[in-house]
Amino acid sequence: MTGTMTNTVSEDAEEAAAVAARVRDVVRSTGTSQREFADRIGMDPTALSKALRGTRRLRDGEIAAIARTAKVSQRYLRTGVGRGPTPGDNGRTRADALDPDVRRAQILDATARLIARKGFHNVRVADIAAECGTSTGTVHYHFPAKDEALRAALGHYADRFHRQLDKAFATADSTLEKLRRLIEVQLPATDEDIDEWSIWMQAWNEAILEPAQRPGQRVIYTRWRQVVVDLIRACQREGIGAGADTEALADRFTSMVDGLAIQVLVQTTEMSVARMRDLLLDAFEPHISLRGATG
Amino acid sequence: MPRPSVEAERKDQIQRATCEVIAATGIRDLRMTDVARQAGVSAGTIHYYFDSKQALIHAAFEYNFRHSMQRRKDILATGGNALALLERVVESYAPADAESVSAWRVWAELWVHGLREPELRELNEAIYGEWREIVVRLVRDAQDQGLLVAGDAVQVANTIVSMIDGLAIQVLLGSQDMTLARMRETCRAYLRGLAA
Q: How far apart are CA B158 and CA B135, in angstroms?
């Protein structure tokens, strides 16, 4: 029989997948995003994302750091036996008597994730209810129409984006550093970032086909573009890129971000997160240079 | 069996109609009967040429790309000043008329459905590669002719292609911030900055 070797390999793969699934649940139970969690354990977010998807094996030191930070035992992460996450931490085990605001946030979170992964038109209210461990009636109560769910998902991710941005800007010591961090926050590096971009792309198409949805899109785009314009102006006040056309630079940058993210999301070989970062670091050239160690 | 020339013509007609339906309603609502009506043929005729809806959609995306290349063939055949050619090719991607708007809507559908369908991602990969290669060649020619500053032509091409895609989406969405005129100016400003 050729079975022995094959079995070992596939059992190995199954075990690795089970570890990845447990780590995923544990990360979720902490109530932080993948990116924040990666920060806390001092791990590269892309590497963590790959590990959670099962395409990269976790190292011993990483498992130890995850266990320490999430307050579970390493044995639990490796075998499923031992101290796991506290039940109820992620809000999913207490199906009833949830505070309406908490329930709404939970439905929104699940809806956004499901739309991102399955596609807006493939998500049924029953899927959302199942994901939240509640009834379709409860979902309908919070989001009477699916369009509203998509709009809410958009708002959800727009808020997430600006929250991340505020956090990244808070510790930046220069305007140039803020521009660099703006690039980082926009890269589709983690699973959550990829979900976010998937929602943007779907929302564009819905709005292209359905003009009634365009105003909502415009608000989001204008708010984002304004962040870029403000940063370029701040640079110019500091004498960097002073003569350059602010609007043209902002339009170049924002359009590149969208165009590059599309190719990363559809997994074009030519375009990776690293390549996207590289191209965006040069987006303001020759007026504003983001290369070099200090700002 | 129809004659080969009739076959090719009929296939084109069906693919063009499919693109028109995708541009109007998106893939999710695409029905074979709508395509048949748009193409002015019977549903049976469509099934004769395309085994499945999937095959039809795939062929329509390829057609959209070939057709867009066909529209630029005359520009590319002109030869001469490569920077002027590049500017004209870039310019030709502005969603300025119904045909171009329709082509862009089909691209946008390819990307979104490519998120979940590996076959469409492969198709995008081939199309994106071929299109980017054309831009790389024009950039290299313009550099060789001393019209653009020397540099990484692939980087310039990636910048141009991503910029056009991102700009076109905002134009299609009717953003106040992004009009056709601004799209053109943004592209021109970038190329001006690279002029030797």
A: 9
pLDDT computed for residue A56 by the predictor = 82
- CA-based radius of gyration for chain A: 21
Backbone angles phi, psi at B95, to 5 degrees: -75, 70
Does residue A114 sit at the B interface (CB-CB below 8 Å)? no
User: Quick one: pLDDT band at residue B22, thresholds 50, 70, 90?
Assistant: very high
Whether the predicted model's global pTM rises above the 0.90 cut: no
Interface of B with A in 26-45 (CB under 8 A): 26, 28
Question: What was the pLDDT predicted at A156?
Answer: 85
Average pLDDT over residues B127-146: 94
Q: How far apart are the first and last CA of chain A?
A: 64
The pLDDT of residue A90 is above 50:
no
Q: Is B78 exposed, middle or buried (0-12, 13-18, 19+ CB in 10 A)?
A: exposed
Q: State residue B148 phi and psi, 5-degree precision.
A: -115, 150
What phi-psi label fits residue A82: left (phi over 0), alpha (psi between -120 and 50 degrees) or beta? left
Taking CB atoms and an 8 Å cutoff, what residues of chain A touch B155? 279, 282
What rounded mean pLDDT belongs to chain B?
92
CA distance A249 to B159: 13
Residues 198-237, chain A, touching B (beta carbon < 8 A) = 198, 201-202, 204-205, 207-209, 211, 214, 217-218, 221-222, 225
All residues of chain A having their beta carbon less than 8 Å from the beta carbon of residue B90 are none
ipTM: 0.93
A199 neighbors A206 (Cβ within 8 angstroms):
no
Residue A265 identity: L
**% pLDDT > 70, chain B:** 99
Q: Which of B29, B28, B30 is nearest to B18 (CA)?
A: B30
Provide mean pLDDT across the span B157-169. 96
The pLDDT of residue A226: 95
* CA distances, B134 to each of A202, B71, B77, B90, B161 (Å): 28, 14, 12, 11, 11
Sign for the pseudo-dihedral over CA of B67, B137, B131, A211: negative
A101: confidence class by pLDDT, cuts 50, 70, 90: confident
**What is the average pLDDT across B69-94?**
90
Who among B26, B132, B155 is closest to A205 (CB)?
Answer: B26
By CB neighbour count within 10 A (0-12 exposed, 13-18 middle, 19+ buried), where does B53 fall? middle
